[in-house]
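Lecture notes, unit on binding sites. The following record was shown on slide 14. It pairs a sequence with FE2/S2 (inorganic) cluster.
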Amino acid sequence: MAYSDKLMDHYENPRNVGAFDKGDESVGTGMVGAPACGDVMKLQIKVSEDGIIEDAKFKTYGCGSAIASSSLVTEWVKGKSLDEAMAIKNTEIAEELALPPVKIHCSILAEDAIKAAVADYKQKHVK
Ligand code: FES
Ligand code: FES
């Protein structure tokens, strides 16, 4: 199976690998698993006081497409508002990386992870 250059680049040089302190008030953590293959993705966002995502990190235990998808979304969410981050579609990720059909669920994992991270952040801030 031929993978795109962008996919290989994100796979070989993943951006923003790591973790923030889960307990930090400015951090939202999303942890999701893919039923199809058992892969797990943890994605975290660091949000400024005016609601902008300043930084993002991920750790993915899974296939190359899952790693590339999470690497890509951590780049995409930086500088975005929470609503803008929620609007990221797996189809955009799949298209950017030219994921083959059997790997589409890897991009869904990334979309779910960012949504879970935003939800976690919001939940921390309900007053
Ligand atoms: Fe095995 Fe994703 S299917 S790592
Ligand atoms: Fe399952 Fe990529 S996340 S194969």
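Take-home: The helical segments are 5-12, 64-77, 82-86, 90-97, 104-124.
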